[in-house]
Every structure is written in C-alpha cells, then in structure tokens.
C-alpha cells in the first residue's frame, strides 16, 4: 500500500553526475532526508477574521471520473442555456444587492455620524464643552463596543477588512464561515457602527468581503436547512464556479465602495484574484456596471432629500472635475518627491502596522474580555485626541469666497470659534472621513489650512490608522490611507510655497495616490480608482508617475500590506512565480511521506482505517494484478468522494470489478457535488459494520482518471508553474524509472510553501538565490544611521 | 528509435469498460486510426501582413538543461540587478519611442491632409470644381499607391493593422519579418500616407504593431550585422522575455494611438495577450505612463504653433468634458436600443468584411500588379464618392453660436456654399477622421446635421470601411468603426426626436461604443478608451451598458473581427478554453505519428538523418541499456540545440558518456540562446564528414530534463489546459503501463487545433457538444426571412 519516497535512486544518480555541488550539499543533509517520512508539518490553521480556524485547500480542477463524464455527456443544450442564463442572472443580482448594501452602508454611516456631530455642535454652541466631550467619547465607545462585541461573539470571521481572506480564497485557501449569512450580517452592521465611531477606519475594504459573501451565498446551491433547493443551482456546486462568483462579488464590492466600476474590476484583476479569464472580465464588468447604475438611481432618490443627513451628491465621491488642471514639466520633480515620500512612509506604515497587529494579536488571543478592553482603550484614546487636539488650533475667518458662511456646507467646523470663524483642525478631525477628504482635495483652498494643523493631523492620522486596524471589528484600510496621504500632500504643497503653481488640492490627490502606492502597492487599479473618485482625467499621467515611484521605493523595503497580513494570519498563499532557489531543487527533494494509496478494488476496512488514520484529502488509486498485468496508476480519488461511497455502502462481497453500471444505479452525479464552505462529512459520520469491513468496493467509477502528474526529477520551479497556473490541489509524482511503484508521492499547496522547503533544506536560507529586496537588518541599519545623522545635524 | 502510437492498448480497455458509447464510436472509426501514423497535416503557413509565410511556434518554457542550470547558478546579484535595470530601461525607451512615433504619425497625417484640403478649398473658392476633384483624387491615389507599393515590394509583413499578427505572436505563433526594422519603417511611412489618402482607415491599430516592433527590436539582443552586440542584451534572447517586451510595446502603441494610457494596458490584457502576470501589468503601466507624459510634452511644444497645420490641443482627443451630462432612467431603453443596433450592425460588418477580404485575397494573391490595380480602383472609387456626394446636401447657415463664422474652427466645410454657410456632408466627408469624429461628438449641436446627410454618411462610411480594409497597405480599423458608430448614434438621436433629452453628441459617443462592442467585442478596454478619449466619466455607466448589450447581441451571431481575420489568415491561434468535445477525447485520440526519439548517447549519422527527414522541432531523449537498466525518458532536446551541437562538433568516437565537463568546456550558455525571429540555422548549414557520421554525441548536457508530460489516458481538455496555461511548445505523452516505450508521442499546438481534431474524428462535427452560437445557416435563414418581411411590408 505504501510507496516509500526515495528521492535519489541510483539510476538517476548515474545519469546526473553533473548535478554537482548542489546535489552534494543535498546529500550531505542526510539527517533531513531521514526525517522525510514524517508528514509535512506546515500549519493547517490560520487566523480568519479574528480567530484561529482550520483551513483547507480548494480544488479548481475538474474531477473527471466516470460518473461525471456520463452526467456531462447527458446534458443537453437546455442545460447549457440554463447554466448561462443563471450565471448572468447571478451577476445581475450580485450587482444589485452589493450596490444596495453599499448605499445602505453609506446612508447609515452618514446619518449616525451626522447626528453625532450635530449634537456635538449644539453642545459646543451652548459652551457645555465637557458634556460635549462626554457625549462624543461615549457614543464612539458604545458604537465601537457594539461592533466589537457582535464580531467576537457572533462571527469572528467578519473581523478586519476581509481582503486577505478573500485574496486567500481566490488563491485556493478555504476557511469555514468566511462566507456565511451570519458573517455577512455582522460585517455590514459591524462596519457601519465601527466606521461611525470615529475610529480611523474605512468602509471600502469590507465591501470586498461583503460582495464576496453575497456572491458566495449564490454559489451554495440553495440551502437544505431552509428547504431552498433547486436542481438548477447544482451547477455552481464546485469550487471553480464559486471562485468565479466570488471574484465577481469582490469586484462589485470595490465598485460599490468607491463608486468606481472600472476600478473595481481592475482591483480584482490586479491584486485579488490569482486566476483570471477573459470571460470573467466580462462578467465582473457587467456586475460593476449594474452597481454603477443602481447606485446612481439610489443617489437620485436621495437627491429629493428623503435620506436624512445623507445629503446630495453624484456618482463621483470627491469631485474635482470643475477645476482646470494645469501642470508643467517643472512639476515633475514634485511628483517624484511625493512618490519617494509616499514610498518611505508607506513601507514604514506597513512595518509599524505589522508590529502593532502582533501586539494586538497577543492581547486578543487571551479572551473576549481582553478584546473588548483593548477596543475600549483604543476608542477612548482616539476620542480624547480627536476632541482635545483641535483646541490647539487658532480660529480662522471664513474665506471670502463662501460669503462669510463657510459652515453651511457642513464641511467646516465652527468648534469653539466665534461666528463666521472656523477651526481648521476640527474640520479635519471632527468630520466624516469622506468630508475630510473632500476638504483636502478641494481646489482653490490653498490658504484654508495652517501648515501646523496639517502636520498635526498628518501625524495623528498616521498613528491612529496604525492603532485602529488591529481592533476586533469589521473595517478597512483604504479610507484612512487616502486621508493620511492627502494630508501630507497638502503639507508638502505648503512647504514648497511659491516653487510650484500646482493647486494644493491636486497635490493632496497625488499625496493620496503615493501613500496608496506605498502601502498597497497596486498600480493600475489604484490609478483608475483615484481617477474615478475625482473625475479628473487630466491628472492621469501625474497619478501614474507618483504611483510608480512610490511603489518602487516601497518595494525595496518590504511587501505590500495585504501580503504581510496574509503571512501574519498564517494563510498559505501560493505565489505565482517560483522563488529562485526552487530552480535548484527537484520535486523529489520536497516530497514528504508517507504516501497512502488504494487498489482499484479495495477492502472497505482498509479504506476506513486509512481515512481514520490520515488527514489526506486524496489518494492515488493503483491497479494491481489481477486487474492489470503490472501495477498501474488508475487515477486519484478524493476523500470526500470516498466518504460518499462509504455512506451509500456500494460494496461487493468479493475482490472483483463491479463496474460502472452498478455505480450509476446507486449514485447520481449530484452526490459528489462539492458542498458549501465548511460543510463536509467526516469519517466518524460513517457507520460500517464489522461484516462490511471485510467487503470490497470498486473505486474505478469514482476515480478521477486524468490527474496531473509530474516526474520526480522535474525541477520544483516548473512543477510549481504547473500547480499554480492550472489551479491544482493535488499533483501526483511518478517515478522516473518504470521498475518502481507507479506513484511516489503527492504534492499539495503546503509542499510549495517556502517555510516547508527552507525547513527541509536550511542551507538555502543563506543562499544567494533570493529575491532582490533590502532585508530587515539593512533597513534597520539605514534607519539608525539616518536617525544618528538627524541627531547630529539637529 | 520509433515508438509507435497505439491509442488503445488492451490493458486500458480492460480497465475502461465504461468508456462506453463514445469509445465504441471511436473504435469504429478504425480507418481514421489507421491513418494516424501520418503526420499532422494542419497548415504550417499563414498570411502574415499581406503575404503567405511559414510560421513557427514560440517556446515560452524555460529549457532547463545542465548548461542552463550551471549558467543560472553562476549568475550573481550583479547580473540580476543588471537584468532588472535593463528591463525598466527598455520600458522607458519603448514608451519614449512609441510616443514619439505616435506623435510624428499624427503630425504628418494632419499636415498632409490639412495641406490637401486647403488646396481643395482654394480651388473650390475659385469655382474650379473639376480641377479640385482632380487634385483631390490624384493626391489620394498617389498617396495610397505609395503606401501600397512600399508594402508590397519592401515589407509585405507590414500590411493591414498588424493586430492579428501581434495577437498570434503573443499566443505563441512566430512568423519571419513581422518585427524587423524594415517592417517598422514601412509600417510608419505606409500608415501615414494611407491614412492621408482619405481612405476609410485608421491610424490606431498600426500603432500596436509599431509598438510591438519597437519592443521586439530591443529584445533581439543587439545586431551582429551592425556590430551592436552587448553581453547585457543576452538576457532577452529567449521567447519569454521577448513576449513580455512585445506585450509592453503593444500597450504603449494603443496608449499612443488613442492617448489613452490606462486603455492601452487594458486592451493588451483583455484582447491581445494570452498570458499575463501582475509584474507585466506594472511594467506596461509604466511604459504607457511614459507615453502619456512624452505626448503631453510634445503636444505642449506644438501649442506654440510650430507644427504647421497640426493645431492646438490637449491630451484628450475628443474632449467633451465641459458639458454637463444628464440622463434619466428613461434613457435606458435608448441605450439598450443602441446596443442592439450596434450588435446587429457590428456582426454584419464582420461578416461582410470577411467576404470582402476573401475576394480581395484572391486578387492580391495573383501579382503585385493586381494588388496595385485593386488599390487604385478602391482609391478612385472612394475619392469619387467623397467628392461628389456632398453636392447632394443643401447649404446650411452657420449657427448663431459661432458668430456666423463657423468655418474658422477648421471643422466645418464651406464647399460649394456661399459665405457663412456650410455643407454638413462635406464637413464629414472632406475632413480628417479625427475632425469628423469631433464634429459628431460635439454637444449642443443637435440641429447642425440634416438627418439624410447623416444617413448617407453612415451608409457610405459603413461600406467604405469594409471596402478599404483589404487593400494592401498598413492601416487599422478602430477609427472608421468609431466614426461609423458615431454617425448612426446621431442619426438614432434625431429619429427619437423629443422622446429623449440626451444630447446628440453623447448619443454619438454611445453609438461609437456600441459599434466597437459589436465588431471588436471588447468590454473593459473599449470602455476605458472611450472615457479617456472623451474625458467624461459620468458617461461610464451608459457606455458600459451599451457595450454589454452590443457584445451580447453580436456574439450570438459570429466571432470578433480580429479572431475572424486570424482564422482567415490561417494563424493557429490556441484558445484558452477547451471545446466541449475535447472532454470526450483522450490525448492518445489525437496523437499523430511517427515519433522520432534519440538515445542519450546517439550516433551523429542518426541525428543528421532524422533532422534531414523530419521537420520536428524537438525530440525525446531516451536512455537505454547500458546507460540505464531499462529504457527511461531522460528529457527533451530541441532541434535548434542539436544544430548547435552538430555545428561545434562535440563528438566522441565511442558510444560512451562524455559528460558535463566536456560540454561546459566546448559550449557556453549563450550558444543556445534563441536567436531573433526568422533567424535560425538549418541542417543544411551543417557540414559533417562521413567519418564524423559514425561518431557519437552525448546529448545529456543539452537535454531539457524537466519537460512537461501527460499520461496518454488524460482527457484532451485537461491536457490543453496544461499546454495553454503553462505556455508550452511541446508536451510529451507517456504511456499508462510501464511495459511500453517510455514516450508514445509529442503534442504540439497543431494537435489541439479543432480542424485537426475534427479531421480525425469527423462525427464530432455533428455532435451536440459544441459552443452555443448561431451558426451561419441560422443567420442566413433569419436574414432571408427578415428581407422577405421587408419586401412584403414595403
């Protein structure tokens, strides 16, 4: 039954005398090779949302067993039309629902925060400053505690932005509960309350998760619990179609979050999805177009003033279209400077964010009480700063352009100032993030803000952003990053003074772009989102340039924020490109055993024992005499399919072929449909009597006869290319010479993870075949010398 | 030496009793199976530009032989930095050069046509109408003949838009001369003159080819002929890096053609490239950003009036940004109507275009004289219509908004009219295409055009577009399609009259979008290009919707224009998705023999004989006793590498391993670099003496030890997925049972082509496992009944 893994058989060594130095090093690591019969011990759990969960790989391969083939052949044209119609209907529904949720989110946040700030203003006018602070801090605390509590107690998977989880799902990592109805509701409610609590968090990121949730629920194939099943929905009960739906949902989510339909599609292409097809581009484009149309209609409804404090507006969030954009070649250095600043600040932001997330992680791990305590502490701290910092700022008279009444626009804050005066710091601090961004982006307002106010706001929003994200509640990163970037953009513009004639509002937009580039490292999508947010196409070349510079600078320090969070969460994300050292290894160098395989006709007892004693999700099926002249690989059978076979007890008393006819009588293809995320049977759900244990089962009809295979001598880099490009879960390794067992091992996602490979071959860690990047020590060194230089020159 | 292909060996038949009906059908086609030892006879030539050329597949796989591995290991950090720096420098240079060429193209076209129309106006004012016609038609004829002559005689590969060729190249089909310096010059010059000749052709499509050419020349690794070689450039001497460069060049080309940097990248993603990576997105984005900046600078230079008749302008080609866009929900039916019209007209356009291209093809095949005669006929015909049709239109007074002097803008034509009057038809016909589009897109001009003028212009530009494209000269399709679409958009708007308050200019934009969607079937990229052309982001939802409708409608009739042209040209384009019937076949069902393989140590005479007698580009290398206990697949060796080995005569007198050390003394890795397109040795370039013929050569160091393999029983659909996703040129098929030769065949691109498969298994043609599409007979039927209905009701 077991085929042992012998990585370097003699034959191949004779043939490979030239695999010189590396092979020697490998062989000298005998101790590692001896431990290779131990299973791959990379982690099978990860932090999903805010809790540790078991994770599983998704299977994007078509399982072409005989039952599937028969079923597939029997599908007529009607089935195919039905499938196509359903796909497009789902896209339409996803678009409508995501747009509605996005609009409702906005409406709720605007109304809650609007009401909060209205009460605050009234109390300030009455000069009841301490009461005002109490109301402000109290309501913030309550809102955030509510968000945190529902996340902790009802659905921990809803915590955070959800983008890392969606990204991992689209890469092939599944976790229970990330896409359930419960998660969806907690995400929506929690996000509204958390964003309304004046924490430095955004509402765009969670829209990705919300979109993905809605889409995934469509792909569940109905619900047996609520008797909502339908034969039509069966077509989507596989990971491939679900992946497509989730991709579309995520695009729609971003499109609704930023009202940026093209940007949504691009973000999904550029940084969320790991596989992409032209057909998918078209469908997600349709979904985001629907989002745009629905949002426009809903916003039109609100223009009549029936939406409370939501206010009027168009599809463009931060419209600067009325302003003529002029820039000269002489402005290029400024753009490059902004890019460099954005890159440095962005990579530092990522670095600090990771540190803070680690510390928060330790606290959050302990208990629910710790989580809520941390939440309260952060909320109170930030509320204090938000309320008391603006007192430092001096009052400024309303600009003449607004006819002395600058406060009616609801974007400037009077705070403690006399009538017709405004407090610039309060206008940024005590405002919705959207209004603060509008303030900073607005053109023709070069002298509205004192440089020190901007500096203070920049420093605090930089720190608040880092401090806020680790709190257990559903919220995102985009908006705080856009806001912080806009602030230093304006600050830089003021510092440059008369050197440039660029409008400060435009420099603020470039600042946002550079900071987004420095933290998230996306290019095309962020560029299009910025353009769709501001509706000023003439900015395009500048935004492109600033993004490129900031990404380049930041990439030389560390990775993008979402990848760092992915790693921190322990999600086994599989990169598309091979690490350079993988080219020096062969597939057999990373194989870990032992391998369990089944005969074509196998004893029930053996199957049950193997399923009980291992956690493998697939097993090779090997035909041995008398069914074939010599041992031959027949295919690969999945654990889930074996469980179905065991449950229906398709057994025969003797070791003989029962064949396809019998199987097709007992089973229908839908028995083998992949069930929804987190729902699967275990071997303990199957009751087998001792008599049945001695019976046999013919596995041929249930075996995938076309698994992808590689030869054991294939280079690991090329095997990874196959594994990743085709989207596999299991890849069979066959021996080079024919005199051995027909399969020598199975490769899974975990076998390609750098921590596994570098654990097996530790000398590779020190090798020079690594990616070009400044490592942490270099960065620390440079930072230290920079600080020393500052101290000396200061 | 030969391993015969036996598709259904007995062992597998015992194991597959269930592969019932289809297997029987397959087996009943014995006659086909008997013919399977004949080679795959799909065509190895295709029409490139305007001439028949031999084609070859590209190899995107890394050839991991020992020499490569050794060389790769020896590369230090300095090499990698150099490679990265070079890659980015190339992007920068591509951006600058493509922008410069794009700008120069525009400048030249505007000046030549401007001068032409200026002379025309002067002669018209002097009432010398026949002279005017003579000058007009004569200059058109001369310009077009020049373009046609240089294309025919100097570089036929430069003919047409070049987009199909670039698309095929990025799919892995190489043709000689498509990316040479000569082609580049002919393309630039020919395009300028052809567009200036008032033919109904565009200048955006050729920019893709020009961009790809420029990029590919960077990837040639210098030129030995002109002694421009450099060790640094070696890194790009492989198909992978060249593919990346060409993709970037094509993006830059579109970006320069439409001044649409984001649209350029998206078009490359959506419809040009077959493989895409995030890193590539970033680099092409950089190149297009450079294009935008350079274009802006160059346009800025022209604003001072030093560019002749080029005129002033911004980065936006057809700016409608100043106009407030208002639309209601009630306008949605109009958008959908436009979409449907666009879809029907677009698919009909494709259909007619194909017919005309076929007819032109017959004529062009005959001789150069025939080509030039056809060119002249088309040019004279179109010139006649362009000049004489506007006489039908009545003169219209200049609108009051232009203060009575509508002709000073250079966009309206006085033609035969009195002063302060304009001829609306002449303003469209006798104008540059850019100006005509600007006329149609301009808002607030609802009553500038007589409906009949629009209808006449629409019909003629629809027909002219179809008639023009097949002429042998370098030009594109985008601009005529945009223009034709805009015309019927405006016409529809006039017909709707007071039903809608949509501005006619905006409806014209939607018309362009719908016609682009109906012919080219792109969605996201066309949408972004339209937005970047017009700078009106508020149109986005409408443009998205109209594109979706028109693409859906058109897709139900036929394929997109470029794919149809690809097929017409005979380019073996490999689709990314498997056809449904491929799931019913196994790999062995399409294998065609005979297979030629080599021993690990092979006699020189055998190699020479095999290379002479076959046209295969790769051969399996099999180790047989005494070098291994049983026959074992060692790897795959390329014909080009064999030729290098033969040329350097690395022979040994006896049948023994000479090993890696000897090889590394004689060869350096650069010997095996892939040379530029079209440059390769043949076996006839190698001189081997009869004594040498009896010697041996050790093929091990030159063999790719990690070729991708599939088992013969794998389903064809899954094999295609692997072949296409990984980007292979050769895929080895290994037997299922171990008692046979270690390789049973090699699959190449041609084995996956539908014409090959359906040729082998003709019954599949009638099967119901086909894609959902109306076939030609259905369409013809519907068209006939529609025409009958028209005739009856008329």
Automatic annotation (TrEMBL), chains A, B:
Residues 703-763 form the CBS domain. Coiled coil: none annotated. It comes from the Eukaryota. The keyword Transport applies. CDD domains: CBS_pair_voltage-gated_CLC_euk_bac. InterPro entries: CBS_dom (IPR000644), CBS_dom_sf (IPR046342), Cl-channel/antiporter (IPR051280), Cl-channel_core (IPR014743), Cl_channel_pln (IPR002251), ClC (IPR001807). Pfam families: CBS (PF00571), Voltage_CLC (PF00654). It is a multi-pass membrane protein. GO terms for cellular component: chloride channel complex; plant-type vacuole membrane. It is found in: Membrane. GO terms for molecular function: voltage-gated chloride channel activity. Keywords: CBS domain, Chloride, Chloride channel, Ion channel, Ion transport, Membrane, Repeat, Transmembrane, Transmembrane helix, Transport, Voltage-gated channel. The chain crosses the membrane at residues 83-109, 129-154, 280-299, 332-352, 372-393, 448-470, 477-499, 505-530, 537-554. Belongs to the chloride channel (TC 2.A.49) family. This is Chloride channel protein. It comes from Carex littledalei. The lineage of its organism: Eukaryota, Viridiplantae, Streptophyta, Embryophyta, Tracheophyta.
């Amino acid at each position: 039954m077991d085929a042992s893994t012998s990585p370097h058989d003699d034959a191949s060594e004779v043939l490979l005398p030239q695999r010189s130095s590396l092979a020697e090093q490998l062989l000298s690591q005998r101790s590692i090779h001896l431990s290779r019969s131990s299973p791959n011990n990379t982690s099978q759990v990860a932090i999903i949302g805010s809790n540790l969960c078991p994770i599983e790989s998704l299977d994007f391969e078509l399982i072409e067993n005989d039952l599937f083939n028969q079923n597939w052949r029997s599908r007529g044209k009607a089935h195919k039309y039905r499938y196509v119609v359903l796909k497009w209907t789902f896209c339409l529904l996803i678009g409508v629902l995501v747009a509605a949720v996005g609009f409702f989110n906005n409406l709720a946040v605007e109304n809650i925060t609007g009401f909060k700030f209205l009460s605050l203003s009234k109390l300030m006018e009455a000069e009841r400053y301490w009461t005002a602070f109490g109301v402000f801090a109290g309501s913030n605390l309550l809102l955030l505690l509510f968000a945190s509590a529902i996340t902790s107690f009802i659905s921990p998977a809803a915590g955070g932005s959800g983008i890392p989880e969606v990204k991992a799902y689209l890469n092939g990592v599944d976790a229970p509960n990330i896409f359930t109805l419960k998660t969806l509701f907690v995400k929506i409610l929690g996000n509204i309350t958390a964003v309304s609590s004046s924490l430095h968090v955004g509402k765009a990121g969670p829209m990705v998760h919300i979109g993905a949730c809605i889409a995934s629920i469509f792909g569940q194939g109905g619900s047996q619990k609520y008797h909502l099943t339908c034969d039509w929905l069966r077509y989507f009960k596989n990971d491939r179609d679900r992946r497509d739906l989730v991709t579309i949902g995520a695009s729609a989510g971003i499109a609704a979050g930023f009202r940026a339909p093209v940007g949504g599609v691009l973000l999904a292409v550029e940084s969320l999805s790991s596989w992409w097809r032209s057909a998918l581009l078209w469908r997600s484009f349709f979904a985001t177009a629907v989002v745009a149309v629905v949002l426009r209609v809903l916003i039109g409804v609100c223009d009549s003033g029936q939406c409370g404090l939501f206010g009027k507006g168009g599809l463009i969030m931060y419209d600067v279209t009325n302003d003529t954009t002029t820039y000269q070649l002489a402005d290029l250095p400024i753009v490059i400077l902004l890019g460099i600043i954005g890159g440095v600040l962005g990579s530092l932001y990522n670095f600090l964010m990771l540190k803070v997330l680690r510390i928060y992680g330790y606290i959050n791990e302990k208990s629910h009480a710790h989580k809520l305590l941390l939440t309260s502490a952060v909320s109170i701290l930030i509320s204090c700063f938000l309320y008391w910092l603006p007192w430092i700022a001096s009052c400024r008279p309303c600009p003449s352009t607004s006819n002395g009444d600058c406060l009616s626009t609801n974007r400037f804050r009077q705070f403690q100032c006399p009538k017709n005066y405004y407090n610039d710091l309060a206008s940024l601090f005590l405002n919705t993030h959207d209004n603060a961004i509008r303030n900073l982006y607005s053109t023709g307002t070069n002298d509205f803000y004192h440089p020190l106010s901007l500096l203070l706001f920049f420093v605090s929003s930089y720190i608040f952003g880092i401090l806020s994200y680790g709190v257990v509640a559903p919220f995102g990163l985009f908006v705080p990053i856009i806001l912080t970037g806009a602030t230093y953009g304006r600050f830089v513009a003021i510092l440059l003074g008369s050197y440039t004639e660029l409008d400060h509002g435009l420099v603020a937009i470039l600042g946002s772009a550079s900071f987004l580039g420095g933290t998230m490292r996306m290019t095309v999508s962020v560029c299009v989102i910025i353009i769709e947010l501001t509706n000023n196409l003439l900015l395009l070349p500048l935004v492109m340039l600033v993004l490129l510079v900031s990404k380049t600078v930041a990439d030389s320090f560390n990775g993008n924020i979402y990848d760092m969070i992915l790693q921190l969460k322990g999600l086994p994300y599989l990169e598309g490109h091979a690490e350079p050292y993988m080219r020096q290894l062969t597939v057999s160098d990373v194989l870990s055993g032992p391998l369990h395989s089944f005969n074509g006709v196998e004893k029930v007892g053996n199957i049950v024992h193997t399923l009980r004693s291992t956690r493998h999700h697939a097993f090779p099926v090997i035909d041995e005499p008398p069914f074939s002249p010599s041992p031959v690989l027949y295919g690969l059978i999945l654990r889930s399919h074996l469980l179905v076979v065991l449950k229906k007890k398709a057994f025969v008393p003797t070791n003989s072929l029962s064949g396809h006819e019998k199987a097709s009588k007992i089973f229908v293809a839908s028995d083998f449909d992949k069930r929804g995320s987190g729902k699967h049977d275990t071997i303990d759900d199957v009751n087998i009597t001792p008599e049945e244990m001695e019976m046999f089962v013919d596995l041929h009809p249930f075996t995938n006869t076309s698994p992808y295979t590689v030869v054991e001598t294939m280079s690991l880099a090329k095997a990874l290319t196959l594994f990743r490009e085709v989207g596999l879960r299991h890849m069979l390794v066959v021996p080079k010479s024919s005199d051995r067992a027909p399969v020598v091992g199975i490769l899974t996602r975990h076998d390609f993870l750098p921590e596994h490979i570098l654990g097996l071959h530790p000398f590779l860690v020190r090798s020079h075949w690594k990616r070009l990047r400044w490592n942490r020590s270099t960065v620390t060194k440079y930072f230290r010398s920079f600080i020393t230089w500052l101290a000396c020159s200061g």
